[in-house]
Design goal:
Number of helices of chain B: 12
CATH superfamily of the largest domain in chain B: MetI-like
Mean pLDDT of chain A: 89
CATH superfamily of one domain in chain A: MetI-like
CATH topology of the largest domain in chain B: MetI-like fold
Radius of gyration of chain B: 24 Å
Order of helices and strands of chain A: HHHHHHHHHHHHH
Structural class of chain A: mainly alpha
Order of helices and strands of chain B: HHHHHHHHHHHH
Largest interface: A-B, 99 and 98 residues
Largest sheet of chain A: none
Helix content of chain A: over 70%
Number of helices of chain A: 13
CATH topology of one domain in chain A: MetI-like fold
Low-confidence stretches of chain B: none
Mean pLDDT of chain B: 90
Oligomer: heterodimer
Low-confidence stretches of chain A: 279-287
CATH class of one domain in chain A: Mainly Alpha
Chain lengths: ~290, ~280
C-alpha cells in the first residue's frame, strides 16, 4: 500500500499543473487553428490565410519580421558574449557590472521602446547630443517614414539593448559549467585571449549558444511592442498584424491566421537550430 | 617581474586590465544611458519635452510630468490592476507549479522525460496563439475585460518557468536532510514543511519575483484580453498613438522603475533563473 502511494505521489503533485496547462495552453492552441481554418459560421476554409496573404501589410510584415531577426539576433549574441566573457574573468567589481548588464532583464519591450523613443525622437537626446557636439544644426529625423532604414535601425538598437541581457545570462551560466582547467590549459600553451576564446571557449559554449539562439529567435518572431513604440504602424511585423486584426479590425480569424504563421516559423526555427547545431552539443559532451 | 623598469610582462598585464575595465565600463554605459535618459525625460516639465536642444543634466527637475501621468484617466487603476494580476500570478503559479517542481526534482517515474519536454515546449508558444482564442473564449465565459482572465493567462505563461526553476531549487536541497527527518519520525509532508521548505525559501522568493517581472511586463495578452480594466503596459500600449510624448515617457519610466529594484533583489539568482531555465 505504501509503495503504491509513493508511485502515485509524483503524478498527483504534477496533476494540477498538467490540467491547467491543458486548459490554458493546449486547448487554446487547438482553438487558434480552428479559428484560423474556419469561417465565422464554423465551416472549414483557407480564406483567412488568403485574405492574410493578400493584405497590403502582409509582405512588409513578413519581410520586417525576418529582417529584424537577422539583424537583432547576431548583435545580441556578440554583445552578450563580450559581456559574459568579461564577467567570467571575475575581475574586481564584476558583480556590480553583472547587475548593471542584467537590468534590462526586468524591462519589457514596450518600456525599452519608449526609453529609446526619448533618445531617437526629433527633439530627443541623440539629436541634442549631436547638436551640442556641433555635428548637427537641425534634428535628424530618425523616426520618419521617409527614412525607413534609420527607423528600422532604431528598433534593432532598442531590442538589442533589451534582450542582450537574456543572452548574457544564458551564456554566463554556460561558461560556469566549463571546467577552469580548459582556460588554464590554453594559458599554459601560450594562447592569446582571442585565440583561446575562438578555439577553446566557443566550441565548449556551443550548447548554451544553441539555447540562446533558439530562445532569441523564437521571441524575435513575437517582436511587436518595441516596434509600435518607435515606428507606430509604419513598420509592420507579424505579431503586430495579429494584434491589429484582433483589436482594430475585430477579426479573430485572421488574427489567429497570423498567430498560426508565427507558430509555424517558431517551430521551423527551433527545428533548424536543433538539426544543425545539435551534433555540436553531443561532441562537447553535454546534454 | 619587479624592479624599477616595468617588464614587458607587467606592461602587458596593465594593458590587459585597462582593456578589460575599459570595455566593461563602456558596456555599462551602453546599458545605463537609456535608463538615465528616460528618467531624465520623466522628471522634467511637460514643456521640456519639446525643448531643443535638450539639456543632458537634470537642470529642470520636476515631478510635473509624472504627476500628469499618474492623474491621467485610467492610469492609477491600471497600476493597481497590474499589481493585483502580478500577485495573483505569483500565488497561482507557485501553488500549482512548486509541487510539480518538487515531483520532478525528487522522483523517478514513468513519463517524467515526456512531461519535462512538454513543459519546455509549452514555454515556447507565441503569446498571440494563446491570447486570441482565449479572448474569444473569455467573452463567452464572462472573463473578458477582467483582471482574473489576465491573471489566468499570466499563470499559464509563468507555470513552465516556475516548475523548471523550482525543480532546480529543490534539487539543490540535500536529499539526505529530508531522509534524515523522515527516519527521525516526520512523515513526507512534515519533512517537506520543516526541512525542505525553509532551505528552499530564498530560491522560491527569487522565483516569485521572477514571476512578478513576467506578469508586470506582459503586454500582448493583457491588451487583447481587456478593454477598460487595463494593466499598466496595456494602458500605455493602447494609448501610444494618441498620447503626448511626455505621457509615454512617464509611462515608460513607471514600467522600468521596479525592474531596477527587482533585478537587484534577485541578483544572486540571476544565472539560476534566466541562465538555467533555457536548458
Amino acid at each position: 500500500m505504501r509503495v503504491k502511494a509513493e508511485t502515485i505521489l509524483p503524478y498527483s503533485l504534477l496533476a494540477p499543473t498538467l490540467i491547467f496547462v491543458t486548459l490554458l495552453i493546449v486547448v487554446p492552441i487547438a482553438q487558434a487553428f480552428l479559428l484560423a481554418f474556419q469561417t465565422p459560421d464554423g465551416s472549414f476554409t483557407l480564406a483567412n490565410f488568403q485574405k492574410m496573404a493578400n493584405d497590403t501589410s502582409f509582405g512588409d510584415a513578413l519581410k520586417f519580421t525576418l529582417l529584424l531577426l537577422i539583424f537583432i539576433v547576431p548583435m545580441q549574441v556578440v554583445l552578450a558574449l563580450i559581456m559574459a566573457l568579461l564577467i567570467h574573468t571575475r575581475f574586481k567589481g564584476h558583480t556590480v557590472f553583472l547587475y548593471i548588464y542584467a537590468i534590462p532583464l526586468g524591462i519589457s519591450d514596450l518600456a525599452a521602446g519608449i526609453a529609446w523613443l526619448s533618445i531617437f525622437t526629433e527633439r530627443g537626446y541623440l539629436n541634442s547630443i549631436l547638436n551640442q557636439l556641433g555635428i548637427l544644426d537641425k534634428p535628424f529625423l530618425f523616426l520618419s517614414y521617409q527614412n525607413l532604414p534609420a527607423m528600422f535601425g532604431t528598433i534593432v538598437v532598442a531590442e538589442s539593448w533589451r534582450a542582450t541581457a537574456i543572452v548574457m545570462t544564458i551564456l554566463l551560466a554556460g561558461l560556469q559549467v566549463i571546467p577552469r582547467d580548459y582556460f588554464e590549459a590554453a594559458d599554459v600553451f601560450g594562447a592569446t585571449t582571442l585565440k583561446r576564446t575562438l578555439f577553446v571557449v566557443l566550441p565548449l559554449l556551443r550548447p548554451s549558444l544553441q539555447n540562446a539562439l533558439i530562445i532569441r529567435t523564437i521571441f524575435a518572431f513575437q517582436t511587436f511592442a518595441v516596434v509600435f513604440a518607435l515606428a507606430g504602424r509604419v513598420i509592420p511585423v507579424l505579431a503586430g498584424e495579429s494584434y491589429n486584426w484582433y483589436v482594430a479590425n475585430r477579426n479573430p480569424n485572421i488574427a489567429a491566421a497570423y498567430a498560426v504563421l508565427v507558430l509555424i516559423f517558431t517551430v521551423a526555427a527551433t527545428w533548424f537550430y536543433l538539426r544543425f547545431l545539435q551534433t555540436g552539443a553531443a561532441e562537447a559532451g553535454y546534454d | 617581474m619587479g624592479g624599477a623598469m616595468p617588464s614587458s610582462l607587467t606592461r602587458r598585464y596593465i594593458l590587459n586590465r585597462v582593456a578589460l575595465y575599459g570595455s566593461a565600463v563602456l558596456l555599462a554605459l551602453w546599458t545605463l544611458a537609456p535608463l538615465y535618459l528616460i528618467a531624465l525625460a520623466a522628471f522634467s516639465t511637460r514643456q521640456a519635452t519639446f525643448r531643443w536642444p535638450k539639456p543632458l543634466l537634470p537642470t529642470d527637475f520636476s515631478t510635473d510630468t509624472m504627476q500628469f501621468f499618474v492623474n491621467s484617466r485610467g492610469v492609477l487603476n491600471s497600476v493597481r490592476n497590474s499589481v493585483i494580476v502580478a500577485l495573483l500570478t505569483i500565488a497561482g503559479s507557485l501553488a500549482l507549479g512548486a509541487p510539480g517542481g518538487y515531483a520532478l526534482a525528487r522522483f523517478r517515474f514513468r513519463g517524467k522525460e515526456g512531461i519535462s519536454l512538454g513543459l519546455l515546449i509549452s514555454k515556447m508558444f507565441p503569446t498571440a496563439i494563446l491570447s486570441i482564442p482565449l479572448a474569444v473564449a473569455f467573452l463567452q465565459l464572462n472573463l473578458y475585460d477582467s483582471i482574473w482572465g489576465v491573471a489566468l493567462v499570466h499563470i499559464a505563461m509563468a507555470l513552465p518557468f516556475v516548475i523548471i526553476v523550482t525543480a532546480g531549487i529543490f534539487v539543490g536541497v540535500p536529499r539526505d536532510l529530508e531522509e534524515a527527518a523522515q527516519t527521525l519520525g516526520c512523515n513526507r509532508l512534515q519533512a517537506f514543511l520543516r526541512v525542505v521548505l525553509p532551505l528552499a525559501l530564498p530560491g522560491l522568493a527569487a522565483a516569485a519575483i521572477f514571476t512578478f517581472v513576467i506578469s508586470w511586463n506582459e503586454v500582448f495578452a493583457a491588451t487583447i484580453l481587456t478593454l477598460r480594466n487595463r494593466t499598466l503596459p496595456a494602458q500605455v500600449l493602447s494609448s501610444l498613438n494618441d498620447s503626448p510624448l511626455y505621457y509615454r515617457y512617464a509611462g515608460g519610466f513607471f514600467m522600468i522603475a521596479p525592474a531596477l529594484i527587482f533585478i537587484f533583489l534577485i541578483r544572486k539568482y540571476l544565472l539560476n533563473l534566466w541562465g538555467n531555465i533555457s536548458r
